[in-house]
Design a protein that fits this description.
Length: 1009
């Protein structure tokens, strides 16, 4: 990347934010609003990567006429070297300068000198120079520094940093460099900058692929190869991006397009690198997916004397922790005492890891290693005074010289260690107070502490929170104990076993030991025993090892209020729980709840998943539920806790729904709650809550569907919660989890013969199938929902089910049926006073009229819907209206208006985090651009629709591939277009879609061409 920096303008690159900017980054000026000068930032700054401009602080300086800007640019691009008058005349006017060219140059220089700071523009040997005192005074200098830093970062192996630095360099471009500057010199520099821009862009795209952003890169590369069809490196990157995105056939089609293009245009073959990549793709070369070699852990070296327990022979994994702790301990050879404290739940392997690390660090502590089990989980933990006595004896202090008091022993202990290099392993500590007297306190020594309690009160300690093993580490440990032959024969069963153990090392070791001792058992037998959650903890014991007993030690140390919180929170399903939801479960204020939860985190019985969010380890949750069954009195307290959680989610989700859809009648038709839930005043914060709570909220629905078999009120609140959270499936973000919850509620409602709950559940399932493009299934659910709504006299499904059937009929080409259903929906919405629903049905009816060729009425219906949305202040729903209007305008040939409507819809969908509708709108924009004769933009939007991976099922993906193929044909990429169409043909044929005929016609036309 030598030369001058240049890359297309790419504001807001996803990697543009970083922890600590490099010196070059820190000096980047903002073209929109230059920052106030700081000590390291020059007062006067210039830009050439766009319009030639100058600033003093935040003030924009006048740069004069185009020829005067040409003079300024010519001087800035000479890096402080003097330009003679003839050189400047030639740069600005070329071979035909005006008669007074020299005088004009002097006039321009005089004007610039008046504007710029004194000393910047100097006269030297009959010429002129601009002497900048800092590279950051010119955006080009900043870009050069960023490019150089990117080179260094890449050479050092930090590809993510290199990519970020290049993105920042590209952000400096603000359109065409030297925009509007006349003269041959400016033309030459623009060409040079353009070539360097492409070089940097190729490098950044190469880094995109190295860090796994291949799907996102396809869209950009598709547009770039269309703009630069003969640039083979871009074609090579596009092939690699497509291949890594699982689109092998398209990658090979790009090669075929390239080979034909080069032969037609230049009469040459592709370069060897491109041909080699084609061959690697053909044989699915595994090396195309890069992986870094793991760093081997240092082997422990036996050094005497030592008190360390023996390390386990089958120690497995934990390489990052071994490396991290090893570096801390080895640093004790310097002038600072190192203290590391490991915390984690019982059975997570704290002692095993600490002993292993301590053995590995022994060469750094030639004067000895001390060890003690502080028995922190026992009713009577070890006293520091007794431990100090034993340590002093181990260090050679006679009994007669050991003082009686703890303070005197601690002082003598530190004095004895002075000048020595000793490692002290303090295992199973109760708290920081127990540990402090036992720390060496002198340079060259180190202490390694393990505890179930996080030692946040231990000043200067390096704190390590030890989590469970990764699945690969867990399987490796299980294999080492059981044997590779038995595990290899039943790998999936072995994965089930370690999964049931929650990847907790103690549980894995117990399960594996039981299996190793029973040669007649298969791995599947053990997996079946552990599959029963009610018996799992009882199965996980062998000899004197038992998971339940380990948890019991921690539970027994809790205060009564902490024990109650532990028991009740364990009842809730879901991967984690937020602080407000936990407060609802416990029926306590948030501040009291937070104190209790943080105490459980400190005891390693609960994990802090993120600020304000908490989670149980799977086995700890089972133990908590066992405690609730055993200790919670009266038993009704368990049911009441789960009722409060359901009410909290329902009340809050209903509030989010009402805030996002003012005037929608759904909240008026929902079950009443006793908990008020959270209240939001701003839609973005409300949506943040909904999507952050998606998994625990849907888990609550599934759990409530089970409880609803005995409690009709719980079942109805569960289905109302599902409906209030419909954004989770409409967005496409949580469709699978949402579908699972909807099916669970529907099955329970059908089993208990509740038409009210079943009708609403089937309406939610209709939404799920619509999002996935499963139209036959969606229509069947909507049909049943309508019948159940009539039986239960429920207005909600009576409105929404015919609306959904109208949409389904649209997609299936049954336009008369669709119009009939939507007119019924409009009438029902009006009868219920639901203006929002009416607007939705009007926009859907607009789509029907488009298909029937009634374009004036289609436009009018969409505008009616938009008017209602505008009146109600509905931004997200307004996006749906603009989307419908954009489709109608596209078909009417009013492409400029259509693109405007669809563009606004896309922005609104993005702001409201609706990836499904973002993808669909990109598809519609692709159609509009294709109709307007802009195939490059059409292909770009189609690729973005595919890259979002949220466009909703195979049918929609096939429709996008159809349009993408049309755009690619116009771009000359016929082979790749055929691959897209064959993929679409396969989908449409499998689904029996009407679009099959069009795709086959397109394929036939290309085969004939």
């Amino acid at each position: 990347m030598d030369g001058i920096p240049a890359i297309p303008h790419q504001r807001n690159h996803p990697e543009a934010a970083r922890r600590n900017p490099t010196p070059a980054e820190a000096l980047i000026p903002s073209a929109a609003a230059p920052a106030d000068p700081e000590p390291t930032v020059p007062a006067t700054r210039f830009a050439v990567l766009g319009t030639v401009r100058a600033w003093r602080g935040a003030e924009s300086l006048p740069s004069g006429s185009p020829q005067q800007r040409a003079l300024l640019a010519a001087l800035l691009l000479r890096d402080g070297r003097t330009a003679t008058a003839p050189e400047l005349i030639d740069a600005i006017w070329g071979e035909e300068p005006p008669q007074q060219a020299l005088a004009t140059i002097r006039t321009y220089a005089s004007r610039l000198r008046k504007v710029l700071d004194p000393g910047l523009l100097v006269t030297d040997a009959g010429g002129y120079a601009i002497r900048l005192h800092h590279a950051a005074a010119l955006d080009l200098g900043v870009a050069r520094a960023l490019a150089a830093d990117a080179d260094k970062a890449r050479a050092a192996g930090d590809r993510a940093l290199a990519r970020t630095l290049l993105a920042r360099a590209l952000d400096l471009w603000d359109g065409e460099p030297l925009a509007g500057v006349p003269g041959p010199h400016a033309d030459t520099e623009r060409t040079r900058l353009a070539e360097w821009r492409l070089q940097l862009l190729e490098t950044r795209l190469d880094l995109d692929l190295e860090v796994g952003h291949h799907a996102e890169a396809v869209s950009e590369l598709t547009a770039l190869t269309a703009a630069h069809p003969l640039r083979e490196r871009l074609r090579e990157l596009l092939m690699l991006a497509l291949y890594r995105s699982g689109r092998q056939a398209e990658a090979l089609a790009v090669y075929a397009d390239t080979r034909r293009l080069l032969a037609d245009e230049l009469g040459v073959d592709p370069r060897p690198e491109l041909s080699a990549l084609q061959q690697r793709i053909l044989r699915a070369d595994a090396e195309l997916a890069r992986a870094e070699d793991p760093v081997p852990a240092a082997a422990p070296v036996a050094v005497r004397p030592a008190q360390l327990p023996a390390t386990v022979p089958d120690f497995t994994g934990r390489a990052p922790f071994v490396s991290e702790l090893g570096e801390i301990l080895s640093g004790a050879e310097g002038q600072v005492m190192a203290v590391s404290a490991l915390a984690g739940i019982g059975g997570v392997g704290k002692t095993t890891l600490a002993v292993h690390v301590a053995h590995a660090a022994r060469p750094h502590f030639p004067d000895g290693q001390l060890y003690v089990d502080l028995q922190g989980t026992e009713t009577r933990p070890a006293e520091p005074v007794a431990v100090l006595g034993s340590f002093l004896r181990a260090l050679g202090t006679p009994d007669t010289a050991i003082p009686d008091t703890a303070a005197e022993r601690a002082a003598l202990y530190r004095s004895t260690l002075d000048g020595r290099r000793v490692l002290v392993l303090l295992d199973n500590a109760r708290d920081a107070a127990q540990v402090r007297p036992l720390l060496p306190g002198t340079a060259g020594c180190a202490a390694l502490v393990t505890s179930r309690v996080r030692m946040s009160g231990l000043a200067g300690a390096h704190l390590v929170d030890l989590d469970v093993m990764s699945p690969d580490e867990a399987l490796q440990l299980f294999t080492r104990i059981v044997g590779a032959e038995r595990v290899g024969a039943e790998r999936q069963a072995a994965l089930d076993v370690v999964g049931a153990c929650g990847f907790l090392p103690l549980a894995i070791r117990i399960a594996a030991s039981r299996l190793a001792a029973r040669r007649t058992w298969t791995v599947s037998v053990l997996a079946a025993k552990l599959a029963d959650e009610r018996r799992r903890l009882d199965e996980l014991q062998a000899g004197d090892l038992a998971v339940k007993a380990t948890f019991e030690l921690g539970y027994g140390q809790l205060e009564p209020a902490q024990q109650r919180a532990f028991r009740l929170l364990g009842l809730a399903d879901g991967p984690d729980i937020s602080l407000p939801a936990a407060a609802a479960v416990l029926d306590l204020p948030e501040h009291e709840t937070e104190d209790l939860l943080e105490a459980l985190v400190d005891c390693s019985l609960l994990e802090s998943a993120a600020p304000g969010r908490y989670r149980f380890h799977d086995l700890v949750r089972l133990y908590a539920r066992a405690c609730a069954d055993r200790d919670e009195q009266p038993p009704g307290g368990r049911t009441a806790a789960l009722d409060r959680l359901l009410d909290f989610y329902l009340a809050t989700a209903a509030g989010v729904y009402a805030l996002e859809r003012p005037g929608d009648r759904l909240p008026a038709h929902m079950s009443a709650t006793r908990h008020p839930g959270l209240a939001f005043t701003e839609a973005r914060a409300a949506l943040d809550w909904l999507f952050a709570e998606a998994d625990p909220l849907l888990a609550c629905v599934r759990q409530s569907s089970v409880r609803g078999a005995e409690r009709p009120d719980v079942l109805r609140r569960a289905v109302d919660l599902l409906w209030a959270a419909k954004d989770l499936t409409e967005s496409g973000a949580n469709s699978k989890q949402y579908e699972s919850a909807a099916r669970a509620v529907c099955e329970t409602a059908r089993a208990v013969k509740d038409p009210y709950a079943e009708g609403r559940a089937r309406t939610t399932l209709t939404m799920v199938h619509l999002v996935a493009g499963r139209f036959a299934e969606a229509d069947d659910e909507a049909r049943q929902a309508m019948a159940l709504a009539r039986e239960a006299d429920d207005p909600l499904p009576s409105c929404w089910a015919p609306n959904d059937r109208g949409i389904i009929a649209l997609y299936q080409g049954r336009h008369a049926d669709g119009e009939r259903f939507l007119l019924e929906a409009i009438a029902n919405f009006r009868a219920d006073g639901n203006f929002v629903g009416e607007a939705s049905a009007l926009c859907n009816l607009s789509r029907i009229h488009v298909e029937l060729g009634r374009l004036p009425s289609a436009i009018d219906l969409a505008q009616q819907g938009i008017a209602i949305y505008d009146r109600m202040g509905l931004t997200l729903r307004l996006a749906n209206g603009r989307y419908a209007l954009g489709i109608a305008l596209t078909q009417a040939g009013r492409l400029g208006e259509a693109l405007e409507q669809l563009g606004e819809a896309l922005s609104l969908f993005h702001e409201n985090r609706q990836p499904l509708w973002e993808g669909v709108t990109h598809f519609r924009l692709a159609e509009a651009h294709l109709a307007a004769g802009r195939p490059t933009l059409a292909a770009s939007h189609a690729e973005q629709a595919i890259a979002l991976r949220g466009i909703g099922g195979e049918w929609r993906r096939a429709t996008v591939l159809t349009v993408l193929g049309k755009a690619l044909v116009r771009l000359g990429q016929r082979d790749r277009a055929r691959v897209c169409w064959r993929d679409a043909e396969s989908v449409f044929a499998q689904l029996g879609s009407a679009e099959l005929a069009e795709v086959r016609t397109l394929l036939a036309s290309q085969l004939a061409a």
